[in-house]
Design brief:
heterodimer; A: about 375 residues; alpha/beta; TIM Barrel; seven-stranded mixed beta barrel; 9 helices; globular; B: about 475 residues; 2 domains; seven-stranded mixed beta sheet; three-stranded antiparallel beta sheet; binds iron/sulfur cluster
Chain lengths: ~375, ~475
């Protein structure tokens, strides 16, 4: 597994700060206030010169850290790798609060909130060229003003960057159309979950009465603001039978979305607690998903399957399966050894429960 | 609840097609039509209309926003010119019967770009705003001037970040020089293939040796360049090709798409011909051709499509897909492509150049030297829309359809002819009717082809929405 937290010692201040790690001892191309200059490197120990003292890092090679942006918490002596230069999967977890309690939530909400927006703002500006940064939670848009401000300021300073904001879209209103338009030059993708076209079913899944109506209102606001929208639907036992009907709804009422991601469940958080009630084994029955894909594509909606191992998807739909699982939580099984499709396949979440997962997996289903 | 206006058209006994301005369609019955015109819709009617995107509650709600989005997505946006058709020479080494006015004899003088014109063309390309370009070389036979083609191609490769070239050639002469030009990954070969050997010979080569030469050359380019070769048939409705022979010929060269176009005669050639029933014969031929494909696809499993029908199907099911000029609305001249003739004059299309050439009307819109004449463009804007045409506003196919004022001028010498009396409309209506009948078919053979053409694994029922409220009573 890729380490996301690193032991850090030697900071001369107490409150958290952000630094960007240079790649080589002689790297003179970076010299900003926020840069940490590599001064010593040996196996899994390295030292960096910063404004806040000489930081000593252990447990990882400096070569794996080149260009990373680190959030250093001196009292706990840890550095969080906020942005990993070599990875396409980077996100700021801006809050753990949320106003929904979705049955499959992978990151169940917590009450307390630490405001780190100023540090995220600094980190974003230090990101490697062209990076896409995720904004996630909890529900980031509980702090709507701060998120908008973060997006606006970062993109003004760094037009090469992009953002992917995961939001339950409960908090947009007509007054947001202006700022959304300002941000509508293709740099911000709003990932928004929708589970069913029947409001009662959707509300039951997110466990918040009235959520569906708020969501539809927000989607209208996003559309009028010219926002790029990635609609996200996790397939569950509860909503799978309603998926084809949802596809019709999407094509008629949400034709402005950029992409519809149909997703498999992640076995963590509430997803782990409710796994047996929720997990829909598409390796046994793909029909409702296939029907939804055909409706959506027939109507010109761009569809993708996230978190589906390729061998669980019938041949004719495999082209839609994207290798979507982030590198730091991805693994493969014994079945995958020597699989011809492994390089195109996203595999499994680290916490995938083999004994209670897909009933049909593996090579014998991949004829190539 | 407010309902967006619906247009309707009878599809068959007791079957009425309805469509809104954004292209949302469904089939219902005369009883529903009666309730609709009487403003006496049942609750079931209203629920159906709301759920299928034909209604909204208040301006600015999601249903209103999505409808306006779908409407807007059907209007063609004006774009930068990124497609240029070049005619470096009008001379040709064949005398096909279809081609009376757009050619000159092979050894004629004064029908090629001179040095000044070449420079003007290159200058015109330089001044385009686009960074990516497609260039189509037409003629005459453009390969007679492969030297000019090379000059243009070299220039474009340097000037644009991406460039692609299509050579429309009769493939009659294919020496090392011609092959050498076509042999490049950014260069595509497009030729004419009218059917079997005899048919091709009757209309194009009129000489067995030449015919055999053409087929040999076609073999050569297909073998060498594979997917970079395409072919188009030209169909004369007075003597249409044998359908099976045509399809087999295309399949034998590995083509999976055939674009059926009727030849449009100009000038003398037109006047000599009785045109009156051309349209109905064309539509009958087209219909027979599609049915043949559907049967054949189902039986052989080798799928062949008719290009225009596939495109219309996509355009009816989805927003967008208005790349074809006949399906574009508004269709503004020189909005994203332009033609430069052998004498450096600019035209909005090939048809426009031919009409101007026979002296019927001057449809040029500038010169390569001076650029596009915006006044000439502005004069044509009114006829570029179908939204307000007195016939089209009642037609459920309007959201999918385009407009072709140049075809109207060519056939009737005016653009203000009642739409439904035009060739253009007659052909469009027939294709759209055919497409609708396929969408609503339950014939296994039809569904097989629809799935294959659309690239779907199943053909969902919701692509053919139906509404019938049998419990509603009609006054
Ligand atoms: S067996 Fe192959 S297709 Fe299946 S999960 Fe493993 S790598 Fe993916
Ligand atoms: S041209 Fe004919 S088919 Fe097209 S919209 Fe007008 S009336 Fe309908």
């Amino acid at each position: 597994m890729i380490p996301l937290r690193i032991q850090v010692e030697g900071a001369t201040r107490e409150d958290p700060f952000v630094v960007r790690l240079s790649g080589a001892t002689a790297d003179t191309t970076i010299s900003g206030l926020w840069d940490a200059l590599l001064v010593h490197s040996e196996d899994e120990k390295c030292a960096y010169q910063t404004r806040h003292g000489e930081l000593r890092l252990s447990g990882i090679r400096s070569s794996d850290l080149a260009g990373d942006v680190l959030l250093v918490d001196p009292t706990r002596k840890v550095g969080h790798r906020l942005l990993r230069a070599e990875s396409p999967h980077n996100a700021f977890l801006v809050t753990e609060r949320c106003d929904q309690i979705c049955t499959m939530c992978s990151q169940p909400p917590k009450r307390y909130h630490v405001d780190l927006f100023p540090l995220f703002q600094q980190a974003a500006v230090l990101a490697p060229k062209g990076m896409t940064i995720g904004i996630t939670g909890g529900e980031p848009m509980l702090f709507k003003d701060q998120v908008f401000e973060l997006l606006r300021r970062t993109l003004a300073a760094r037009p090469d960057l992009s953002f992917h904001v995961l939001t339950n879209a409960q908090h947009f209103d007509e007054t947001d159309v202006g700022i959304l338009r300002e941000l509508s030059n293709g740099k911000v993708l709003w990932g928004v979950p929708l589970y069913a076209r029947e409001s009662s079913l959707h509300d039951a899944i997110v466990r918040k009465p009235g959520a569906f109506d708020k969501l539809m209102n927000s989607l209208g606001v996003l559309a009028r603001g010219g926002a790029l929208i990635e609609l996200r639907t996790v397939v569950l036992k509860t909503n799978a039978p309603a998926l084809e009907s949802l596809a019709e709804y999407v094509s008629v009422q949400l034709p402005f979305i950029s992409k519809w991601a149909i997703m498999q469940l992640e076995n963590i958080g509430f997803g782990r607690m409710n796994w047996d009630k929720l997990f829909f084994d598409n390796s046994e029955c793909f029909a409702p998903i296939g029907a939804a894909i055909d409706v959506a594509r027939g109507r010109g909606v761009n569809v993708a399957l996230y978190n589906f191992p390729l061998c669980t998807v019938p041949e004719s739909y495999r082209a839609f399966a994207a290798p979507s699982i982030s590198d730091w939580k991805q693994r493969y099984l014994r079945e995958c050894d020597g699989c011809v499709s492994r390089k195109d396949c996203g595999g499994f979440f680290t916490w995938y429960p083999e004994a209670r997962g897909f009933s049909r997996l593996g090579l014998e289903q991949i004829e190539a | 609840m407010k309902i967006w206006p619906l247009r309707f058209r009878e599809l068959g006994p007791s079957r009425v097609l309805f469509a809104d301005d954004a292209g949302g369609y469904f089939v219902s019955d005369p009883a529903f039509l009666q309730r609709y015109v009487d403003s006496a819709l049942s609750d079931t009617d209203r629920k159906f209309l709301y759920e299928h995107g034909h209604a909204f509650n208040r301006v600015g709600d999601l249903q209103h926003t999505s409808f306006t989005w779908r409407w807007t997505a059907r209007q063609s946006a004006r774009e930068k010119i990124a497609y240029v058709i070049l005619v470096p020479t009008l001379r040709c080494n064949l005398t096909c019967t279809y081609c009376q006015v757009s050619r000159a004899a092979e050894n004629a003088k004064g029908y090629d770009w001179d040095t000044d014109t070449l420079e003007a063309v290159l200058g015109f390309l330089d001044r385009l705003e686009t960074d990516e370009i497609k260039v189509e070389f037409q003629g005459g036979e453009p390969l007679l001037r492969s030297d000019l083609l090379r000059r243009v191609r070299d220039h474009c490769r340097k000037r644009f970040s991406r460039s692609e070239f299509v050579v429309c050639t009769n493939l009659q002469r294919l020496g090392p020089d011609e092959i050498g030009f076509l042999d490049a990954v950014d260069t595509y070969t497009s030729t004419s293939l009218d059917g079997g050997l005899l048919h091709h010979e009757r209309y194009r080569t009129r000489n067995r040796a030449l015919t055999e030469e053409f087929f040999e050359n076609l073999d050569t380019v297909v073998q060498r360049f594979g997917q970079r070769v395409s072919a188009l048939p030209t169909v004369d409705i007075d003597d249409p090709p044998e359908i099976e022979t045509l399809v087999t010929a295309f399949e034998s060269y590995g083509f999976s798409s055939i674009y059926l176009r009727p030849v449009n005669y100009h000038g003398f050639a037109r006047r000599r011909r009785a045109q009156r029933d051309d349209l109905s014969r064309w539509n009958a031929f087209y219909d027979e051709f599609i049915d043949f494909l559907i049967d054949r696809n189902f039986q052989t499993g080798h799928v062949m499509e008719e290009f225009y029908l596939s495109l219309c199907l996509r355009r009816m099911l989805q927003p967008g897909h208005d790349g074809h000029v006949d399906l574009r609305n508004p269709s503004l001249p020189a909005s994203d492509y332009v033609l430069i003739d052998f004498d450096g004059r600019l035209y909005p299309s090939d048809e426009a150049r031919m009409l101007s050439r026979i002296g019927q009307i001057d449809l040029s819109i500038g010169t390569a030297h001076d650029g596009i004449d915006q006044e000439a463009i502005a004069a044509r804007v009114p006829s570029a829309f179908n939204n307000f045409d007195p016939d089209c506003i009642h037609c459920p196919y309007q959201p999918f359809c385009g407009t072709d004022p140049i075809d109207d001028v060519s056939r009737y010498r005016r653009v203000d002819i009642p739409r439904q009396d035009t060739w253009f409309c007659g052909r469009q209506l027939a294709v759209f009717d055919k497409a609708m009948s396929l969408i609503y078919s339950s014939d296994e053979r039809v569904l097989y082809s629809l799935r294959k053409w659309a690239g779907l694994a199943t053909w969902p029922n919701s692509l053919a929405p139906e509404h019938h409220d049998t419990s509603a009573h009609t006054s």
